[in-house]
């Protein structure tokens, strides 16, 4: 146990008072209750070393950090589970990992994609290229070549009720997969030419190879799910049309819009929003960039993803502009950990950085971007809470010559496919938190459009919840049924 003690501050575990909030907030515990319970796993650390070394559980944590955000004692469970994985690897045991892959393959929709973006062991053993490569190979052999993704068999149609799903991101595809497996005829409507949502058009290829996503979607299609692309609900077809033709409708449209960035010159040619940029690149519509590019980074992870994608198009230079310090950008936590890795890669690929810098206006000539005026930022006097506000330093303005500016501010909800749907804060769709039903009977919503920006695994868990509710609704035909 000494090796594990070196990796984890076991003293901290004493602060856990077993309230179970971590388990209650964990999407994996919700989806795989017989396989995974973070609270119990935490407690087995003191008790059973053999179990720790060989158990699938530490490998099933999907790094969503919901437990950490909700734990009243602030315990960082994913960090602890990461240490256990490292401990197992250092003891030459990959048994737990292999069992975890089997569980993921059998129980989680989009298993291969999830292995890349949720369960990836690279996050545990980042210092061992050899193990990383062999594990990557294991994922491909185990899941893509010989696994679930190539062996789907169309489910027999057991129900006559038809279901329409709006949006083919992880939440919509999960509901489609679950309902098809229950024997419902399901049709997914997707406004883009390809299915997959942000896994297709947001997450860059270097983090999720598209052939992996294709394998997962192929499996769902083989189950009998029909996916109609290039159909925007609210435009090509109305929600009312779907309600007449289908017995239940799910809205899983995610957050497709970029948050606005109010700055002079944002309407010039050469200014593009980050999600638009990623979408166009991922769909092969942007294949080259003008020579000098700046990424204005408000959302750290989005900004780095965008900078790295831009670098792959090989312009002369890509500059990242960030209002705060480098330390702040790489700040720890879920994002921080990934940030550090991605940031290192981006610097290695040639990204230039301007920290404590903020744009004041985008400069143009004949309607085209020619530069970005920026100010250096300093720290103001501490307020009553001791916090120091960022303020532009007077007279520090300078100009960077540029041809393109990419604004990476963050995500906003998609436009609702119908005005009749009740919207809440920031235009998310309001749902009954238990049934996920909207104000319209038989119309459900799940994923980011209902719960805000999140992760793939949380969206998948939400898709599973929607499938259960729709199944319940169709079987009982009672609107808003809640089983207690
Ligand atoms: C740049 C980026 C990087 C990310 N990296 C990660 C990561 O590494 N790991 C991770 O776990 N998560 C990551 N995420 C988050 C993850 O992708 C999302 O949490 C997840 O995709 C949300 O799923 P969803 O099904 O709710 O919506 P989405 O994936 O957004 O899918 C919604 C779909 O609905 C379609 N649609 C919208 N309106 C209509 C309409 N009216 N008619 C028909 N179709 C419509 C859209 O075109 C889209 O295909 C990232 C997100 C972004 C943007
Ligand atoms: S939420 Fe925190 S305190 Fe509660 S059981 Fe989990 S780790 Fe322990
Ligand atoms: S990080 Fe997410 S998946 Fe892992 S234990 Fe916490 S809630 Fe569960």
Question: Care to describe what's here?
Answer:
The relative contact order is 0.11. By secondary structure, the chain is α/β, with parallel strands linked by helices. The strands form four sheets. A five-stranded parallel β-sheet has the order 3-2-1-4-16, sandwiched between helices. Strands 6-14-7-8-9 form a five-stranded parallel β-sheet. It has three domains: about 1-150, Orthogonal Bundle (Fumarate Reductase Iron-sulfur Protein, Chain B, domain 2); about 165-255 and about 415-475, FAD/NAD(P)-binding domain (3-Layer(bba) Sandwich); about 260-410, 3-Layer(bba) Sandwich (FAD/NAD(P)-binding domain), CATH 3.50.50. Helix 10 crosses helix 11 (about 110-115), helix 10 runs parallel beside helix 12 (about 130-145) and helix 18 packs parallel to helix 20. It is built from 22 helices and 16 strands. Flavin-adenine dinucleotide (FAD) binds near residues 197, 199, 448 and 457.
């Amino acid at each position: 146990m000494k090796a594990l003690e070196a990796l984890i501050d076991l003293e901290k575990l004493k602060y856990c008072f077993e309230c179970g909030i971590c388990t209650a907030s964990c999407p994996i515990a919700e989806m795989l209750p017989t396989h995974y319970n973070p609270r119990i796993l935490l407690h087995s650390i003191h008790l059973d070393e053999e179990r720790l070394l060989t158990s699938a559980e530490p490998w099933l944590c999907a790094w969503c950090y919901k437990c950490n955000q909700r734990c009243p004692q602030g315990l960082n469970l994913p960090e602890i589970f990461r240490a256990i994985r490292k401990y197992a690897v250092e003891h030459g045991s990959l048994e737990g990992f292999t069992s975890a892959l089997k569980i993921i393959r059998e129980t989680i929709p989009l298993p291969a994609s999830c292995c890349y973006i949720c369960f990836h062991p690279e996050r545990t053993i980042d210092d061992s290229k050899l193990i990383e490569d062999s594990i990557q190979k294991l994922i491909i052999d185990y899941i893509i070549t010989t696994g679930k993704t190539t062996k789907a068999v169309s489910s027999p149609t057991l129900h006559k009720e038809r279901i329409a799903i709006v949006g083919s991101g992880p939440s919509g595809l999960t509901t489609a997969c679950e309902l098809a497996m229950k024997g419902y005829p399901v049709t997914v409507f997707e406004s883009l030419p390809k299915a997959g949502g942000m896994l297709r058009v947001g997450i860059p290829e270097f983090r999720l190879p598209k052939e992996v996503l294709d394998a997962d979607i192929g499996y769902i299609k083989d189950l009998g799910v029909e996916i109609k692309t290039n159909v925007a609900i609210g435009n090509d077809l109305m929600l009312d049309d779907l309600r007449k033709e289908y017995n239940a409708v799910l809205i899983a449209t995610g957050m497709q819009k970029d948050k606005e960035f109010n700055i002079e010159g944002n309407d010039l040619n050469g200014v593009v929003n980050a999600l638009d940029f990623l979408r166009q690149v991922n769909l092969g519509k942007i294949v080259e960039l003008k020579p000098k590019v700046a990424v204005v980074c408000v959302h750290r992870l989005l900004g780095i993803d965008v900078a790295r994608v831009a670098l792959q198009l090989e312009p002369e230079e890509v500059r990242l502009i960030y209002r705060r310090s480098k330390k702040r950008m790489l700040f720890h936590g879920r994002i921080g950990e990934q940030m550090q890795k991605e940031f290192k890669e981006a610097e290695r690929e040639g990204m230039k950085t301007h920290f404590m810098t903020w744009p004041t206006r985008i400069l143009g000539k004949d309607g085209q971007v020619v530069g970005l005026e920026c100010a250096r930022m300093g720290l103001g006097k501490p307020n009553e809470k001791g916090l120091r506000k960022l303020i532009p330093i007077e007279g520090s303005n300078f100009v960077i010559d540029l041809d393109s500016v990419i604004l990476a501010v963050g995500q906003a909800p998609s436009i609702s496919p119908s005005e009749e749907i009740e919207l809440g804060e920031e235009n998310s769709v309001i749902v009954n938190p238990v049934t996920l039903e909207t104000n319209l009977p038989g119309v459900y919503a799940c994923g980011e459009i209902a719960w805000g920006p999140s992760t793939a695994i949380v969206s998948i868990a939400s898709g599973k919840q929607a499938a259960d509710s729709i199944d319940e609704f169709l079987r009982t035909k009672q609107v808003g049924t809640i089983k207690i």
